[in-house]
Amino acid sequence: MKVKEAMRKNVIKVTRSTPLKDLFDMFSDFHSFPLLPVVDQDDKIVGIVRSENLLDILRPQQAKLFRNIPFVDVKEEAFDLEYSPSLGQLIIVDDIMDKAYDAIDESASLIEAYRVMNDLEKDRLPVIDSNRRLVGILGIFDVIKAMFKKKGIV
């Protein structure tokens, strides 16, 4: 079974110029913040936004610098800092997105996708076509569900 058969095709995506407030408005009905692809005018993926990117806005600069260094304990003071409400319009996706991202080709097998997700320790990946256009999102649950479906269990 191929990734394109299991992926979710209805994907919420944003552009680099999407304001932070609009980004949150798009996700007001979701119970958690998913991986959010950032695309250009041709629907080619140029980056991603994860919940960690949003938290970085609230973290003091020193916490951002040391966040990924083991054995460094930095207190999170995000709730104590003062923020201007205008940040919702001033901060845009381009300010916070990760320009380095992992994606999987729609023609890859589900076994390959599972291995990639496992190796990268990711539970969701954007799915791209041969022209690097965003065509879907594949989550670990999608892979598991497809495997159960293939075996006739669901």
What's the short story on this structure?
Helices cover 36% and strands 14% of the residues. The protein is α+β, with helices and mostly antiparallel strands.
Shape: elongated
Report the portion of residues in β strands. Answer: 5-15%
Task: Name the CATH superfamily classification.
Answer: CBS-domain
Instruction: Evaluate the radius of gyration.
Output: 17 Å
CATH topology: CBS-domain
Output the structural class: alpha+beta
Largest sheet: 3 strands, mixed
Specify the CATH class: Alpha Beta
Number of domains: 1
Specify the number of helices: 8
- How confident overall, as mean pLDDT? 84
Unreliable stretches, pLDDT < 50, 5 or more residues? none
Helix content: 25-40%
| C-alpha termini separation | 15 Å
Q: Could you walk me through the main structural features you see in this protein, from its secondary elements to its overall organization?
A:
The protein starts with a helix and ends with a helix. The protein has a 3-stranded mixed beta sheet. Strands 1-2 form a two-stranded antiparallel ribbon. It contains 8 helices and 5 strands, in the order ααββααααβαββα. 36% of the residues lie in helices and 14% in strands. β3 (104-105), α7 and β4 (124-128) form a beta-alpha-beta unit. α7 (110-120) packs antiparallel against α8. The radius of gyration is 17 Å and the shape is elongated. The protein has a single domain (3-150), classed as CBS-domain, CATH 3.10.580.
